[in-house]
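Technical annex, item 7. During the second reporting period the consortium partners agreed on a shared format for inverse folding records so that results from different sites could be compared directly. Each record opens with the tokenized structure and is followed by the designed sequence. A conforming record, contributed by the partner at site C, is shown below for reference.
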């Protein structure tokens, strides 16, 4: 079982990764919207990036939800 400190550290790490992912995806989509890449390949990449975004957001939400179910060592 994990301690409360370990659970809190895991939460901070997951939140940091979630925020980093959000910034990275927004940056990629902004570049595509600004015309850094054009044509069917750019359209496909934008669609795939949006799919990745939804998938990762769901994963981060589930991970944070699982942390909420943990009881630290020594907790009743």
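Designed sequence (site C submission):
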């Amino acid at each position: 079982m994990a301690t409360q400190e370990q659970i809190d550290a895991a939460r901070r790490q997951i939140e940091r990764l979630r925020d980093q992912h959000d910034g990275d995806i927004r940056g990629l989509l902004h570049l595509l919207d600004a015309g850094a890449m054009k044509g069917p390949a750019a359209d496909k990449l934008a669609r795939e990036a949006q799919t990745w975004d939804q998938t990762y957001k769901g994963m981060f939400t589930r991970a944070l939800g699982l942390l909420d179910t943990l009881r630290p060592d020594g907790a009743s």
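Residues 4-33 form the longest helix (30 residues). The two ends are 13 Å apart (CA to CA). All partners now use this format for quarterly exchanges.
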